[in-house]
Amino acid sequence: MIGFFDRLARPFLHALDPEDAHGLAVKMLKFAPLPPAPRDDKRLALRVFGLNVPNPVGIAAGFDKNAEVPDALLRFGFGFVEVGTITPLPQPGNPRPRLFRLDADHGVINRLGFNSQGADAALKRLVVRAAAGGIVGINVGANKDSPDRVADYVQLIERFAAVASYVTVNISSPNTPGLRNLQQASVLDDLLARVVDARERIAPNAGPTPVLLKIAPDLSLGDLDDVVGIARSRRVDGMIVGNTTVARPPNLLETAIAKEAGGLSGRPLYPLANRMLAETYVRVEDVFPLVGAGGIDSGATALAKIRAGASLIQVYSGLVFRGLGLIAEIKNALLEALEDDGQDSLKEFIGADAAAVTAEPWPK
Q1: 3-state secondary structure string across the chain
Q2: What integer pLDDT is reported at residue 2 of this predicted model?
Q3: Rounded CA gap, 69 and 63, in Å?
Q4: I need a surface site. Which of 104, 206, 280, 318 has the fewest CB within 10 A?
Q5: Model pLDDT, residue 130
């Protein structure tokens, strides 16, 4: 059924405007007669952030922005789903066009700007599906015109903790003016202090809710030192490395589209994202786990991401070009790697190459 859905839908969707295709894909998933999720090999299971994850392959925030289809996505075989980014109040985001495919590069540029139906709409859907099971994380962000962006994150933690498997504090989108300034040390320290305090305050009623921090791949190593130090001192449960990049690698083929403003994702992001993941891993020193995102479009790149330091991985842009078959391809590649290495768990692979990756020349 999944293969049929992929073969039928992907060529049609790829012929549409990228944002129209995305909207149609979400609508199709609402009504698709999908079978239950396939049972995963036990060797792919991990315990991360206090959660029992059936396999390490997740879908990143950005696809299901308003928590409309998390259960459909889980049935495709994802080990976990991250919905959002959700903002407190509805907002339209930036003007269209704001989503662009770089076909020759297998990349995507977006400047969506946290287009969101708002917290109320997403919360209603998540409350309805709360008993359905599966790991559904919630990615939260501040409204563009908010007078107090830190207060936005605190409010969202308080509202979603009870229905979230985990909450991701997204301060790394390049498409909301000034948002990445929240990664600066003094501001970030205050933000995480207030977010974690809110989480602890409501835990007696909401239960334990892991808090993750999503960072940009464009940080300097000095800034990364500060971010990791603050994340460790404020006892966040993990980090996602990373969001899209505002850089444009010099070897891009789609040079005209590459001039569009926004964050670049997909295959061209992979070298930078993988390097920043490894740099983060060696700084975290196993205090908390990492989620690796950015440029995963094959079993080989997924395994390399884990070996660079990721306990879990997230895909999104890779699905645009490789289709839903990518999920099974990644899981099969990980199982083959375990068999080849004589391992019973992915734990031995996590961070195995991190030091070597950090010794390589900086990616262009």
Answers
A1: CHHHHHHHHHHHHHCCCHHHHHHHHHHHHHHCCCCCCCCCCHHHCEEECCEEECCCEEECCCCCCCCCCHHHHHHCCCCEEEEEEECCCCECCCCCCCEEEEHHHCEEEECCCCCECCHHHHHHHHHHCHHHCCCEEEEECCCCCCCCHHHHHHHHHHHHHHHCCEEEEECCCCCCCCHHHHHCHHHHHHHHHHHHHHHHHHHHHHCCCCEEEEECCCCCHHHHHHHHHHHHHCCCCEEEECCCECCCCCCCCCCCHHHCCCEEEEHHHHHHHHHHHHHHHHHHCCCCCEEEECCCCCHHHHHHHHHCCCCEEEECHHHHHHCCHHHHHHHHHHHHHHHHHCCCCHHHHCCCCHHHHHCCCCCC
A2: 54
A3: 9
A4: 104
A5: 87
What pLDDT score does 32 carry? 77
Q: Is 265 a catalytic residue?
A: no
Q: pTM of the prediction?
A: 0.93
What is the Cα–Cα distance from 235 to 162, expressed in whole angstroms?
20
Burial (CB count <10 Å: 0-12, 13-18, 19+), residue 334: buried
CA-to-CA distance for 114 and 129, rounded, in angstroms?
23
Lowest mean pLDDT among 34-38, 236-240, 309-313: 34-38
Query: Whose CA is closest to 168, among 190, 144, 145, 135?
Result: 135
Summarised one tens digit per residue, pLDDT across range 230-269 is: 999 999 999 999 899 999 999 999 999 999 999 999 999 9
Residues 344, 350, 354, CA angle at the centre, nearest 5°?
A: 145
Q: Which of 106, 109, 112 is nearest to 268 (CA)?
A: 106
Classify residue 241 by burial, with Cβ atoms within 10 Å: 0-12, 13-18, 19+.
buried
Question: Residues 146, 173, 311, 317: which is the catalytic one?
Answer: 173
